[in-house]
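This part of the workshop introduces the protein records we will be handling. To make this concrete, we reproduce a full record directly below.
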Amino acid sequence: MVGILLTATAACDVSSPGVQGTEKGTETGTPSAAPSTGGSAPAESDVPPATAEHPAEHPVKAPVSPLPTHASAGTATVPAVPPVLGMPWAQNQQGYGQVRPATIFNGGDPTGLVQSVTWSSWGGASAVGTGTAEYVGPGQSVADGTEARAEVVAFRLGSCAGKKAYRAIEWYFPAHGQHFDPTRYIDTCTGENHGM
């Protein structure tokens, strides 16, 4: 009699495609195993019953991240475009049209060259850097010039050819008693000398 009952139960399980594993385990009195997917699955006790049996009815929602507390509504988060140093106005120039150029060269004699420039500031009303340039003293020829530390200042923030740019540059030699003079500069958009 017992053998007949077990055979009938097994036949019912096989012939009823709608019966799920958990129902089968309930009918036979033995726990059912989760189907193997080839990967590791969470233990049955770790999965909430509602989501394990009926995932479509109870979808898991991702937590919503709040806005950063420092951001205020309506503020732009697009980073500002840094200004460039004017634009090239002659051949063989270097540094013009660039952001924080390490070399600035006017394209002519060595007195128009500043190398190894490191900028301590850039992007404000003026930019300040330090580099190496050829110093030619009063009454000296270019051939008599010597290499010296130069202070570089880019200023007159505006635009060149539609780009945000420093429109003026000057470099000077503090070790030789020189100082910044905003009336003496090169127009970085046209190459015109002012007060030099």
